[in-house]
Structures are given as structure tokens and as C-alpha cells.
Specification:
Strand 1 and strand 2 form a beta hairpin. The radius of gyration is 24 Å and the shape is elongated. By secondary structure, it is mostly beta strands. The chain contains three helices and 18 strands. About 25% of the residues are buried. It has an 18-stranded antiparallel beta sheet that branches.
Length: about 250
């Protein structure tokens, strides 16, 4: 998610900062409805309270970004829409100038995330739709990564299972529109990091699918006892191992 152009100019440096037209209180502070052109070229039109942006307002950044929404004590707080200069857009909840709560983010390439947002990143429960293919991920997120239970839904089949560090991991199943499903397990192989990688960068994981039994579609949790009982079938019923490289390409498609 973009951060460019999201920091408002601080108007607390004085009541005569920049050019202002609007209402004031008895202390000559900006109070009520007004319009301001700030020293850095940004513009704000909306409501103030005791010298701070408060209530509904529109803030236009000189770089082309624009925020339309609610303020509390000078900070974006509540419901608001942010248009970023790179063409991306966030519409949803804000807390203390940060994207937080529930929201929808539209990326430059047309991909859309809709769901929980924490620390300005996709978190909790959310849906990510890939614009190019229509593929959807529906599931849990942690710090902008797919993490925990989720479904990756393609046009004629879907994967149901668990994710870790943004790739599928552990027991799961593929469900096909033709009326069958394949049980199996994703194993992850960690790849060497580039020499210039940061120390706290997440590991590079390549998933490999170990295929098991093919059966009629069952309405069950892929991590339930039934799958545990079939664990031996993962390696014994077909010995089919497919490279996760191909699957990872599907994930990114």
C-alpha cells in the first residue's frame, strides 16, 4: 500500500499560517468552516475546531494526492478516501492518521484488497482480487501477508488450506468444478536469500504440492481428523509430486 502523499501539513504553528479564509473563535484560532492554503502549497477546505482540522474536510496535496474524509484533532480519523499520486486509492477507516480498521485498497495494477487493515497493512480477514485473472484469495492476513486459513479461488477450481509467509503450507485440498477434490499437503523449501537482502526480510519459500487421494467433493475441513487419517495417502496413493514453482506462478497470476 502506498504511503506517498499521506502526511498532512501541521497547522499548529500559529493562527496565521499560510492563507486562511473562514471562521475563527474568540482566540482567533481557526474554528468552524474555512479554507486554507498552506506554506508548502497544500490546500485544505473543511471544518476546524480550536485551530485544528476537525470534522469533514478535503485536503489536497501539491503532489496530486487528495484526502476526503473525517478529521479529529488535526489527524485523519474515521471514514475517509485517500487518492494517491501513483493512481492507487484507499477507502475506509483511519485512526490517528493511519489506515486502520476496515477498508478497500485499489492498487495501481487494478488489484483490489478489501477487509481488515492494521498498521497500514492487510490484516485479519480479507479478500484480495487479482485484476488480470480474476483469481481471489479469501482468508486471514498478518502484516500484509497471507497467513493462516484461506482459499485461493480460480475460475474452475480452488485451493482450500493454510498459508504461511504468503505461500500455501501444510494439509489442504484442491476442489474442482467437475465434482471431485484432491487431498494433499504443501511442503515449503526455503531458498537462499540474495546477498543484498535485509536482515529482517521474510524467507523465500517455494511450495511443493504432494498429491494424495482424489475423491468426490466432501464438505469437510481440510485440517480435520478425516485428513489426518488419510495422511499416509499423501505419499502412498500415487506418489505424485508437482513443483511448487508452477503453483506459485498461479498464486501470483
Amino acid at each position: 500500500m502506498s504511503d506517498v502523499g499521506s502526511e498532512d501539513f501541521d497547522e499548529e504553528q500559529g493562527p496565521n499560517l499560510g492563507v486562511y479564509e473562514g471562521e475563527r473563535n474568540e482566540k482567533e484560532e481557526r474554528h468552524g468552516y474555512g479554507k486554507a492554503t498552506l506554506p508548502n502549497g497544500d490546500k485544505y477546505e473543511g471544518y476546524y475546531e480550536n485551530g485544528k482540522r476537525n470534522g469533514q474536510g478535503t485536503y489536497k496535496f501539491k503532489n496530486g494526492a487528495r484526502y476526503i474524509g473525517q478529521y479529529i484533532k488535526g489527524k485523519k480519523h474515521g471514514e475517509g478516501v485517500m487518492y494517491y499520486p501513483d493512481g492507487s486509492k484507499y477507502e475506509g477507516q483511519w485512526v490517528d492518521d493511519m489506515r486502520h480498521g476496515n477498508g478497500t485498497y485499489t492498487y495501481v495494477n487494478g488489484d483490489v484488497y478489501s477487509g481488515g487493515v492494521d498498521n497500514e497493512q492487510p490484516s485479519w480477514q480479507g479478500v484480495y482480487t487479482y485484476a488480470e485473472t480474476g483469481t481471489k484469495y479469501v482468508g486471514t492476513w498478518v502484516n500484509g501477508r497471507r497467513e493462516g486459513a484461506g482459499e485461493l479461488i480460480h475460475s474452475n477450481h480452488k485451493f482450500v488450506g493454510s498459508f504461511s509467509f504468503d505461500v500455501p503450507k501444510g494439509k489442504g485440498k484442491y476442489i474442482f468444478d467437475i465434482g471431485c477434490e484432491q487431498l494433499g499437503e504443501y511442503m515449503t523449501i526455503e531458498q537462499p536469500r540474495p546477498d543484498d537482502a535485509e536482515e529482517d526480510a521474510p524467507p523465500i519459500l517455494v511450495p511443493k504440492w504432494k498429491a494424495g487421494r482424489v475423491q468426490p467433493i466432501q464438505l469437510s475441513d481440510p485440517n480435520a481428523d478425516e485428513l489426518n487419517e488419510m495422511e499416509n495417502n499423501v505419499t502412498g496413493a500415487g506418489d505424485t509430486t508437482q513443483s511448487g514453482v508452477a503453483e506459485s506462478e498461479q498464486l501470483e497470476s
